[in-house]
Write a structure and sequence with these properties.
Structural class: mainly alpha
Shape: elongated
Number of strands: 0
Largest sheet: none
Radius of gyration: 23 Å
Distance between the termini: 58 Å
Order of helices and strands: H
Amino acid sequence: MAERTTYKQRTREEVMAWLQRARERKQAFQERANEIFAEEERLRQMATESHYYDIAVK
């Protein structure tokens, strides 16, 4: 017996809403990544200014 798949037809509004949610998730992820990067840069700068060698970055 052959496997049968059925796909629900999506409206334009459903697809646009799905894409918008994906954009929002991407933006939230990017903002969090930027925060982490900024914190690492701040810590790296503090280590440089205090004359400690930053072994975490190599």
